[in-house]
C-alpha cells in the first residue's frame, strides 16, 4: 500500500513538473543550467 501510494505521488509530481516546464520553458532552462 505504501509503495503504491509513493509511486502514485511520484507520478503526480512528475506530471506537474512537466506541465510547469511546458508553461515556463525558461524555468526549465535555468534548472538545466
Task: Enumerate how many helices there are, as a single number.
Answer: 2
Q: How many domains, as an integer?
A: 1
Secondary-structure-derived class? mainly alpha
Instruction: Give a quick account of the main beta sheet: strands, pairing sense, barrel closure.
Output: none
- The count of DSSP E runs of length 2 or more, i.e. the number of strands, is 0
Mean pLDDT: 76
Rg, nearest Å = 12 Å
Q: Name the assembly state.
A: single chain
Protein name: NADH dehydrogenase subunit 4L
Describe the protein in words:
The protein has one domain (2-32). The protein has 2 helices and no strands. It has helices at residues 2-23, 25-32. The longest helix has 22 residues, at 2-23. It is rod-shaped, with a radius of gyration of 12 Å. The model has no long low-confidence stretch (mean pLDDT 76).
Features:
single chain; 33 residues; mainly alpha; 0% strand; rod-shaped; NADH dehydrogenase subunit 4L
Describe this structure in a few short sentences:
This protein has 33 residues and is mostly helical.
Chain-wise SSE layout:
Blueprint: H1 2-23, H2 25-32
